[in-house]
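step=encode ok
step=design start
structure_in=
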């Protein structure tokens, strides 16, 4: 399967305008219409982003996230919005992570997903999504998406920040140099087990 022909244009457009309704923006208000880098030529090209061209033309072999934040698309600076296209091969997942500066509104445009998040009371909320479904991941909470099926899946996420940030839970815990003894006590295991887990991760 090499294309997204089954995905209708109307569903894709709905995903692209979904951020308009997000009211959870955490970016500071700006005192101008927009923010442009110094010595930037201002014309229509500044407000257009072409980095998503071809993203939906084929399915990758591994989970792939293609972002449009203020880092990739400077015109988003001060606009309290950003996007990401998430592509999940069969059986793959987006591991537990958080976005410290924004909520995430996910719209499934192809395939199916199992998603979930954990609140501050350690309650897990899960849901199975089908094409056309949306799911909100509240700001700052640990969440994940999984594709347990034999078919690929594609989702588009909008964020209430031009730079929502991402903290990967596995990488933050096991690849940042936290002492083995501390992790062993935290996970109620031994240092050898922690070292075995760490060996599967590179540096972030």
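sequence_out=
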């Amino acid at each position: 399967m090499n294309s997204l022909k089954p995905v209708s244009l109307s569903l894709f457009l709905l995903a692209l305008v979904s951020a308009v309704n997000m009211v959870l923006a955490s970016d500071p208000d700006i005192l101008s219409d927009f923010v442009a880098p110094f010595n930037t030529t201002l014309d229509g090209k500044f407000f257009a982003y072409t980095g998503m061209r071809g993203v939906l033309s084929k399915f990758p072999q591994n989970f792939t996230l293609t972002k449009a934040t203020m880092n990739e698309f400077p015109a988003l600076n001060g606009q309290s919005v950003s996007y990401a296209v998430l592509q999940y091969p069969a059986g793959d997942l987006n591991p537990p992570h958080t976005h410290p500066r924004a909520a995430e509104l996910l719209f499934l445009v192809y395939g199916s997903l199992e998603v979930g998040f954990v609140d501050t009371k350690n309650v897990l909320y899960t849901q199975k999504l089908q094409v056309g479904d949306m799911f909100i991941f509240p700001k700052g909470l640990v969440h994940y998406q999984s594709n347990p099926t034999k078919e690929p899946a594609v989702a588009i996420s909008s964020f209430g920040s031009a730079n929502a940030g991402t903290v990967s839970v596995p990488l933050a815990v096991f690849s940042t140099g936290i002492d083995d003894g501390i992790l062993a006590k935290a996970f109620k295991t031994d240092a050898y087990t922690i070292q075995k887990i760490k060996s599967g991760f590179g540096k972030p």
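step=design ok
step=annotate ok -> The longest strand covers residues 82-88.
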